[in-house]
Amino acid sequence: MTTVRIPAGWPATEEQARAVQDELRERVVLDEPGPPPGTGHVTGVDVAYDDERDAVAAAAVVLDAATLAVVAEGTAVGRISFPYVPGLLAFREIPTVLAALEALPCPPGLVVCDGYGRAHPRRFGLASHLGVLTGLPTIGVAKNPFTFTYDDPEPRRGSSSPLLAGREEVGRALRTRDGVKPVFVSVGHRVDLDTACAHVLRLTPRYRLPESTRRADSLCRRALREAVAD
DNA sequence: GCGACAG
DNA sequence: ATCTTGTCGC
Q1: Contact, A83 CB vs strand B, < 7 Å
Q2: What is the predicted pLDDT for the residue at A133?
Q3: Are strands A41-50 and A110-114 parallel, antiparallel or unpaired?
Q4: How far is CA A105 from the centre of its chain?
Q5: Is residue A5 part of a domain?
Q6: Residue A215 lies in a domain
Q7: Looking at residue A1, what is its pLDDT?
Q8: pLDDT per residue over A105-116, tens digit each?
Q9: Through-space separation of residue A165 CA and nucleotide B4 C1' in angstroms
Q10: How many domains does one find in chain A?
Q11: Mean of the per-residue pLDDT values for chain A?
Q12: Distance A7 CA to C9 C1' (A)
């Protein structure tokens, strides 16, 4: 496991952070379909916090996209780099997530983030930001609709409805299990929305949340416990 | 002006 | 995110 330092020049204020988003947003690529579902690698990333001890841990778990078997894992720990501010989540999560990705022994393929990509007040959520910084294809899968609106999708797994910012479709409410609350999918970088949803359905053969994020979630919690223990 | 608000 | 046991249900 690697230890991260907060990058030099990392934004210190909300105003600076928003300015970074406005600049990097220009580099998002939205006109690529993305990797074909069921092929190559899919990597889940997630972060856990101990605000009390100013500690953060991130995990990246690489799955074989066809079998969902774990291929590789990477973790990183560090100090909290930014407070939680809705719309600025990336500045809290990205330094440690980048280090966890760099700790991997193999290419991550598609990266699945816990949160949003295009479904964001300035259309530049965590998944978009991570995609631009790494050049990797990324998508966001969130558990809540944030400030956006949607009509409840049909009850069957696989049905979906637009996630709307006014009249603009910024993502999709996607039912991954029969009769269970949908997840909220949006594109990050170099993936289109239909392909993103197809990936999420392949990643949810059993549970509401993608296998990638479930695995990353348990790994980063374990990494945080172990980091705080010594 | 006052909430609401990804993790 | 995180604090947290048992419990209802498939």
Answers
A1: no
A2: 97
A3: parallel
A4: 20
A5: no
A6: yes
A7: 77
A8: 999 999 999 999
A9: 15
A10: 1
A11: 95
A12: 48
The gap between A161 CA and C8 C1' (Å) is 30
Residue A193: helix, strand or coil by DSSP?
helix
Amino acid A74 CA to nucleotide B7 C1' distance, rounded Å: 20
Q: Which amino acid is at A122?
A: R
Dihedral sign for Cα atoms in the order A175, A176, A182, A187: negative
CA–CA gap between residue A203 and residue A102 (Å, rounded):
23
Tell whether A149 is covered by a domain. yes
Distance of A28 CA from C4 C1′ (whole Å): 41
Nucleotide nearest A147 (Cα, C1'): B5
Residue owning tokens 């780099």? A81
Residue A10 falls inside a structural domain: no
- Which pLDDT belongs to residue A31? 97
Domain hosting residue A48, numbered range: 36-229
Phi-psi region of A135 (alpha: psi -120 to 50; beta: other; left: phi over 0): left
Looking across all nucleic acid strands, the nucleotide with the smallest C1' to CA distance from residue A48 is C1
Strand B contact at CB of residue A104, distance < 7 A: no
Query: What's A63's domain CATH number?
Result: 3.30.2170.10
